[in-house]
């Protein structure tokens, strides 16, 4: 190979675990010898070597390969050599991109020693070579699936051992109780069987300093990257407890195949129908008895709607409607029974008061009867409006809504802005591509991107303004729809669930605001203020000031609508 240009090359060596088991022909040592001999015969200077030992050819995030790409971006070498195309990679699309586009666009010659691929020549058979290399990848994926399926059918555990178990020292395909975590699992099931909630179990485990499953794996069993390990929390979550309680593996049964990859090229997994799961019974020692497991499953359903069928449970009409004004979580029904007075001590409260968050929602609590009466009187104020008062209310809204021409102009502005934003996104993507390919320098890239981003921010601000105007323009129709429903009612003596859902979209309850020097309410007649925001269907919030004075019999609620 004669040339007047100094040829500085890097060689890339790769071997997967599966290929290593097949013999020495493709070993790292043999690849190195073959490439070194070729370079000596053709006066090529090898300046550096990159190796990925034990990495699949379908994964192009290999550390050695990525390190080589970073060196190539610096322009210090002009050649890359591998033993054959399969060493570069076995994914047909990715391997073809690097061999036939990435390297040539950067002035880098890529060649292989064994199958005579060279970017300075016409490689007529290259598409077939890339395809055959991918066939090997597909066949390997099929063989792995066959092995896993055979293991599942034989009851062998071919996944990460669940919390509470470890691999048996004498048979690595079987599970054995983990001396450190098995007692924790048994404690969880015992507590759940007694009726303790998953939230309380999680709080108690955290308070006792017991490591949750992910943190335990990070410290004792799993191999995690530093960044991923740092995300492992020391706090137990009630969903983690619930997941343990629902897992039949603790009865001694193996359950696998609940998800699968969408393709051998993808890491994305999809759920498998339950009837297709691989279940093998009595494959390892159980940690809990069938009785405790069934009791725990029964108690898991105590917070569901089906449990509300029992007469002794207070049935709130505000389920899914009343939420915490501080955190947005639904308010839960709570309270005590004193001398048989159930209604008197019935509250709606935010239960998002975990000890592991910095700002729990304390004070977000309202007496159930107070909220019922507040909403009932507010609705009656709307129902009592005369036609003239309704028209006056709607006319005030109409003054803020534009004409038909204005609405058309808003639609045109929105369409132009959205089209331009999509164009800006494509331009910025193209600029970064040109920069990566060396067609655009960094300084010019920065200037152009900053200008486009500033234009995009202005367009987004204009879209928000147009959207607000459009919402105002729809207010007339929304009011008409709302008051058409109002006309079907005259006066509400009681407030039921159906009526509430007909008119109200949601209710936000804020924390109590106590008088200065008062830390908590100690008796029923002690005054306080509390924000209660009622958002009606179609028209939203009507009250200019949602702060309500308690206790006062909820008087004056009618006045909120007319202000």
Automatic annotation (TrEMBL):
Superkingdom classification of source: Bacteria
Chain ranges of the Recombinase domain: 162-306
A GO term, aspect molecular function: DNA binding
Record domain Resolvase/invertase-type recombinase catalytic: where: 8-161
Pfam families listed in its UniProt record: DUF4368, Recombinase, Resolvase, Zn_ribbon_recom
TM annotation in the entry: none
Key words, A-Z: Coiled coil
Gene3D superfamilies named among the record's database cross-references: Putative Large Serine Recombinase, Chain B, Domain 2, Resolvase, N-terminal catalytic domain
Coiled coil: 449-476
Keyword Coiled coil assigned: yes
Record-given protein name: Recombinase family protein
Organism for this UniProt entry: Acutalibacter muris
């Amino acid at each position: 190979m004669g040339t007047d240009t100094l040829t500085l090359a890097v060689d890339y060596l790769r071997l997967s675990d599966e290929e290593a088991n097949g013999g020495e022909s493709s070993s790292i040592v043999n690849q190195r010898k073959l490439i070194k001999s070729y370079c000596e015969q053709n006066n090529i200077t090898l300046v550096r070597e990159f190796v990925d030992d034990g990495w699949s050819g379908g994964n192009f995030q290999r550390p050695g390969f990525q390190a080589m790409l970073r060196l190539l971006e610096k322009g210090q070498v002009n050649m890359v050599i591998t033993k054959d195309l399969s060493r570069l990679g076995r994914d047909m699309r990715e391997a073809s991109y690097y061999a036939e586009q990435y390297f040539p666009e950067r002035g880098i010659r890529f060649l292989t020693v064994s199958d005579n691929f060279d970017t300075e020549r016409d490689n007529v058979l290259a598409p077939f070579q890339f395809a055959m290399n991918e066939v090997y990848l597909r066949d390997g994926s099929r063989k792995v699936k066959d092995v896993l399926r055979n293991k599942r059918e034989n009851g062998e555990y071919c996944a990460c051992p669940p919390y509470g178990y470890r691999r048996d020292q004498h048979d690595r395909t079987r599970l054995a109780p983990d001396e450190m975590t098995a007692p924790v699992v048994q404690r969880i099931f015992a507590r759940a069987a007694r009726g303790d909630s998953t939230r309380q179990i999680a709080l108690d485990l955290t308070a006792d300093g017991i490591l949750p499953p992910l943190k335990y794996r990070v410290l004792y069993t799993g191999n995690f990257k530093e960044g991923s390990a740092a995300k492992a929390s020391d706090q137990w979550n009630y969903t983690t407890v619930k997941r343990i309680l629902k897992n039949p593996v603790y009865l001694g049964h193996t359950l696998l195949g609940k998800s699968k990859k969408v393709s051998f090229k993808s890491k994305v997994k999809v759920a498998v129908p339950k009837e297709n799961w691989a279940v093998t019974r009595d494959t390892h020692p159980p940690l809990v008895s069938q009785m405790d497991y069934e009791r725990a499953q029964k108690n898991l359903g105590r917070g569901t709607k089906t449990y509300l069928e029992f007469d002794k449970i207070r049935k709130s009409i505000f389920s899914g409607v009343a939420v915490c004004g501080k955190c947005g979580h639904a308010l839960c029904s709570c309270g005590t029974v004193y001398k048989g007075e159930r209604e008197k001590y019935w509250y709606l409260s935010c239960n998002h008061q975990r000890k592991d968050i910095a700002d729990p929602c304390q004070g977000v609590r309202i007496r159930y009867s107070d909220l019922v009466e507040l909403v009932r009187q507010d609705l009656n104020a709307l129902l009592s409006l005369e036609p003239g008062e309704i028209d006056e209310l709607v006319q005030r809204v109409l003054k803020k809504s534009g004409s038909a021409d204005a609405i058309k102009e808003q639609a045109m502005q929105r369409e132009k802005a959205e089209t331009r934003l999509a164009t800006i996104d494509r331009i910025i993507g193209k600029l970064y591509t040109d920069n990566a390919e060396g067609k655009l320098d960094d300084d010019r890239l920065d200037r152009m991107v900053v200008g486009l981003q500033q234009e995009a921010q202005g367009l987004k601000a204009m879209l928000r303004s147009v959207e607000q105007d459009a919402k105002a323009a729809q207010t007339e129709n929304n009011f008409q729809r709302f008051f058409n429903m109002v006309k079907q009612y005259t006066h509400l003596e009681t407030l039921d669930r159906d009526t509430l859902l007909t008119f109200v979209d949601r209710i936000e309850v804020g924390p109590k605001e106590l008088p200065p020097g008062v830390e908590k309410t100690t008796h029923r007649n002690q005054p306080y203020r509390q924000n209660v925001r009622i958002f009606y269907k179609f028209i939203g919030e009507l009250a200019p000031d949602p702060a309500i004075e308690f206790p006062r019999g909820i008087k004056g609620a009618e006045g909120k609508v007319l202000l």
